[in-house]
Give the backbone structure.
Amino acid sequence: MDINILLVDDETDFVETLTKRFRIRKIQVASASNGPDALKLLEDQEFDVAILDVRMPGMDGMELLRAIRARHPLTEVIMLTGHASLETGMQGMNLGAYDYVLKPADFDELLDKVRRAAERKALNARAQQAGS
Amino acid sequence: MPGPNRPAASPRRGGGLFSRATGARIWREHRLVLWLHFLVPPLLAALVVAATFASPALAAFLAALVLLLAACSARGLMTSLSSAEEAKNSLTDQLIQSQKLAAVGELSAGIAHEINNPIAIIAQEAQWATHLLDQAASGGGQDFSEVRDSLREIQAQVDRCGNITHKLLDFARKREPVLQEVDVARLVDDMARLVDKEASYKNVTLTRDLPQDLPTLRTDAPLLRQVVLNLMTNALHAVDKGGRISVTAQATDERMDISVTDNGCGIAQENMDKLFNPFFTTKPPGQGTGLGLALCHNLVLGMGGAILVESREGQGATFTVRLPRQPRALA
């Protein structure tokens, strides 16, 4: 299954490394360093999974999550954060994130979560097609 | 139900057997009928047997009469049974209806309360800002920082309202579960990791007891995460400094149980049946919306499972999410 993901994080070094590692695993990656840019990318292209940093200047990860759930409900969202906070975790899960992962995340674990999130997206898309 | 002033069942000797078989009230009110039911059939049978010796025709006539009598009395019994059943059903319906109405009443009171507070603050801040602007317009100071503060507060309160309505919508929306193979032990541990740090601030120990060989479960992963995280957060709120929380999971052939146990304040008996009502909360106003457990309850029902609660006031609580291993056809 071809998976394409969107990475949104203001730490560009982190994004670059992660992008390389995902590409080696044959996963297509696009990236943005802030919320508005990410939403622009989402308008142009459908993504299976978006990985969002919780803390970003300007539009933060929670706001972006809300916008994605509202405008692109099929795209699954994984929140990735270096600042474990129960409150944002609850908020993220209650807003409909697929998962909430703490940095530093083990890459294989993250990869597994991405694959499962993409599988869920495919199941949802199929259910929606069957329903319409 | 026995009348309030009547003494409790005290059947006289001889009636004891009947009263045990039929219930004290029925025995009291229909003693004669019951005795007749008990005595008449053998009497009639004896009569029929006796008549057989005298004249077969008389015996046949008597037997037919007996059958007719039996049929009539059986019919009477059936009618009163079914009317009793109907009465019981209509009472149950009324009870459910009134419980629903009570829940709706509580719901609207909850919404009103939650939204009214921020609205009051918004009104106050707006008035203050208007007053400041009037002052500035009439040649007062040009310092708008206080106005800006008011606007910031108004924005914060609007966000608060938005949050409440969002949660409410989330509560009302029926999300179709998407079934995937889920490693429950991993899922629970992931969520526990989120709680760990907060728990350590409170000096609370959070232990996991997740068997290595716990099977995977076909269920909705993000919904289950939401439920588990909500329950663990509740537990963390329930315990004092130095408290203990444990999370366990175990599976049988039919089901998987995920339990969150805390040694916190527990749940008062009178609150047990309100726990899952939307907006029911024991937290001070503004600190809990009372939607967490209601949402969890809905989510778990949607997954074909149930949440079980065990608690005694002052002795902590255990919330167990029980999910079927073979999910039934989910509507």
About this structure: The radius of gyration of chain B is 33 Å.
